[in-house]
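Expect chain and fold; thus:
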Amino acid sequence: MSLTAGVIAVQGDVSEHAAAIERAARAHGHEVTVHEIREAGIVPDCDLLAMPGGESTTISRQIHSDGIAAEIVSHVDTGKPLLATCAGLIVASSDAADDRVEELEVLDVSVERNAFGRQKDSFEAPLPVEGLGDEPYPAVFIRAPAIDTVEDGDAEVLATWDDRPVAVKQGPIVATAFHPELTPDDRIHELAFFANDDAVLESADQSAST
C-alpha cells in the first residue's frame, strides 16, 4: 500500500526529513509520497507527519496563522504518527516556557529551549535510545532543547543525555531534542513511523476511505 507523508515546511531540514522518511518506508516495504506542507488542507490527507526544527517562535506563529496547527492536533487525535524534532518538540509540548510560543499541547512535557547551549555548542553524542536495540544512536544536538518535566500522562522517556530527557514517546508521537534527519541512521524515523506497521496501514486504510 502507498502511504502519504507530510513534512511541515515552515523552517528546518525539510528535504532531509523527507529523504529519511522515504528510506525508512522502503526498509519496511512501503511506498511513500512525501509532501512539503506550507498551507492548510494537506495534513488531513497524510498518514505520517514530521515537524522539523528551526525557530520555535516562528514555526508556532506560522502554523497557527496558516491554519495548519489545528490540523496537526487533529492528526494526532486520530492516532496518526507524528515525529517532532528539536523546535518541533518545543511547539508540540504543553509548556515551552516562552510566551511567544503558542504550544500545540499534544505532548505532556515542559521544555527548556537551548538547554545545551547555542549554535557554537552543537555536538554529536552516542545516545542509547529505548526501542533501537543495543547500538547507540548518533544524535546531533544543535541549539537543542531539553525536557524539563514529564507531566502526569502517558509520555514515556526514551533517552536521556546529561541526566535530562531528550526523547519521548506519547501515543502516536515520538519527539526528540536532537536532529535525526542529519544522520544516515534512519532508526528514529523507523521507530516513529513503522514500529507498528499494522497501525500505519490501518491509518492509510482510513485515509483512503475518506
